[in-house]
Amino acid sequence: MPPTLVTVAVGVLLGVALLGEAFDRRSMAVVALAAAVPDFDAVLSLWIRGATNAALHTFFIPLSAAVALYLDTRREASWLREQYGWYGVRVAWVAVAVYAVAGVSMDLFNIESAAVLYPVSNRYFSIVGKLVLSTQEGVVQSYVEFGDGWLSAGTYGTTESRHISTWVNPTPGTDNPPGAERVVRVVDSGWQLVVVGTAAATLAARTVIERRAV
Predict the structure, then answer these.
(1) Distance CA 103, CA 1 (A)
(2) φ and ψ of 126, to 5 deg
């Protein structure tokens, strides 16, 4: 899975773009946390076999949150709106979007995959492919199979047959031997470093703009 720093960076970019007038340090902290939370299922793997990229990477979590948020905010006596006003509603919706896009989809659209239907299905899914323009073949893409109209998604084992190594639980199972090598992945590639740098610069620029506007 992409390093947590990268998913948080993507979440920050989404937050800066979507928060609007609700942008401040508190709302950005909520958004960054929403992006990071799915990766905490690596900790759960110490007790639940195969929980990494599964227990908190399921789309049922943001879907349930979105349904609950919709049902609450459409009521005249909305609890969230009464407690936090329009600010709370905006931050909540952005946090749900960030959880789904940065927290979950970054792993789904990655070779390391995510069990996005957990616990209904414990199978890891990965959507990978390419889109290129060729002077001889025209548009070439491998994401969608137009023959049957389905989005092509590869499967990479199940939570029982496959272990995704993390610094929290580097070895299969829940034994977590103390002598095992632990690797903390901060940034894995150049494009990830660009994303992190862009997020930091964007956040700093937006903060300066907001301060000058006061």
Answers:
(1) 10
(2) -145, 125
Distance CA 4, CA 102 (A): 10
- Claim: this prediction has a pTM higher than 0.70: yes
Measure the CA–CA gap between 3 and 5, rounded to whole angstroms.
Answer: 5
Tokens representing 122 are: 């414990």
Q: Rounded CA gap, 43 and 64, in Å?
A: 22
* pLDDT (tens digit per residue) in 23-50: 999 999 999 999 999 999 999 988 988 8
Token pair 């773009």 is found at 17
Q: Which residues contact 119 (CB under 8 A, 6 or more apart)?
A: 58
CB-based contact 62:54 (threshold 8 Å): no
**pLDDT tens across 129-150, in order?**
788 898 888 888 777 655 444 4
Kindly state the tokens that stand for 180.
């095992």
CB atoms under 10 Å from CB of 10, counted, come to 22
DSSP classification of residue 114: B
Length of the chain equals: 214
Using only the alpha carbons of the chain, give its radius of gyration.
Answer: 19
- Supply 52's token pair: 């990494």
Where are the alpha helices (H) located in the chain, listed in sequence order? 4-18, 25-36, 41-44, 60-73, 79-98, 106-108, 190-213
